[in-house]
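Problem: given the chain below (441 residues), write out its structure.
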Amino acid sequence: MARVVLPEESAKEISELIDVLISLFFESLPRRDQRNWARVYLNGLVRTSGKKTIRNIAGTGASSVEQSLQQFISKSPWDWTPVRRSLAQYLERTAQRPLAWVVQPMVIEKAGDRSVGVGRQFVPQLGRTANCQQASGIWLASSEASFPVEWTLTLPGPWTNELMRRRRAGIPDTARSLTPAQDAVHAVQRMAATWQLQRRPVVMEVANSDIPQSIESFALQDIPFVFKVDGSLPVSFGGAGRHKPGPHTAPARELIDSLRSQRRVVEWTRHGRAEGAVTLLTSAAILATPGEDRPVPMPPTPLLLVGAWTEAALLPSEFWITNIGDRPLAQLFLLAKLTDRVSLDFTETCEPVGIRDFEGRSFRGWHHHATLASVAHASKLLSARGRLPDGYPGAGRPDIGAGPAVRPRTGAPAPLPRTGPPVLPPRPLIPGQSARREYIR
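Solution.
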């Protein structure tokens, strides 16, 4: 139950920032005491060391505080969706101008069997079977920073089929047992339909079995996407020439490798690293392939298969399917690699504020905790980058303790205010560079 001892000035500034965030994102909470407990919980997520359990946040010798926090998180009926929507709208409007919505899987391994959604299941991210919860975060991501704004918690069959287990966890009647990808696709559809956000490409990894339904779901709402897929995925494509009208079918890896003579070289900088990297890219137009039990979508969705080689690799190693056909390959690759930006921010910021640490057993409690952890994540990154909300007393001052502030180089001109979505910088002239070589960062 150790707590971080912050300098008095830093502690005061963090509290001031959280007060502003409460006023921005928690107006939907109907009672003042609820907003007060949200403030207490947020302060605990940001300032408490070790695991962010309710007991640690409450501190020693404060049983009444612990009971009140337990009631607020696990039982209080406040709706988390308006809070998440307000957070997303604020970040979209003023903070980062995201390039994409990135779906990031999250696996929470558990020792017991009572946490909502827990079960023994095969987890692709771990490459093994584990006793765990599987969740997904939807992140607003730019090249500079990323923020989780929506969460899904996947419920294995026993949690939706067994009435007593469902009632004990407070699982809503509308909740169904779906795959993590299906849960994430439905969440993106809800965001696109009701959250009043600018439509952004959705970047996510999708298993072969989920590809047809995911493509069809996003096509119905005209949602742009970049899906990372396995090289074994069968894809259909048209033939070349009069004698090969097609369509033909082949694994994605085989089709991309057949086009190695058309590769483009892309130089880029990895997220969180100073060194550059070189990747070779090529692409092929493909046809949407329906699942065995699903009819062919009408009209078929025009798609692009993109493949990548590392500089010294003999075979392509990464593959994406996208319905974005009007952007250069370098920009599509930049969008795909925003998953690295999200992974970095998840490890450096979201995990330290306790996104995995909820120990309660209720569906509602898990979502309340994830919502407050998302706001805590935003407070850490906004303060570290000097992008503080209007009305915050310390706006414009350097970092308040969450990390080093990002400052322009000495003598560098002040950056111009952004008036639109970010674009890639002009390609620099690199001596000896071929016309097909592209530079992104």
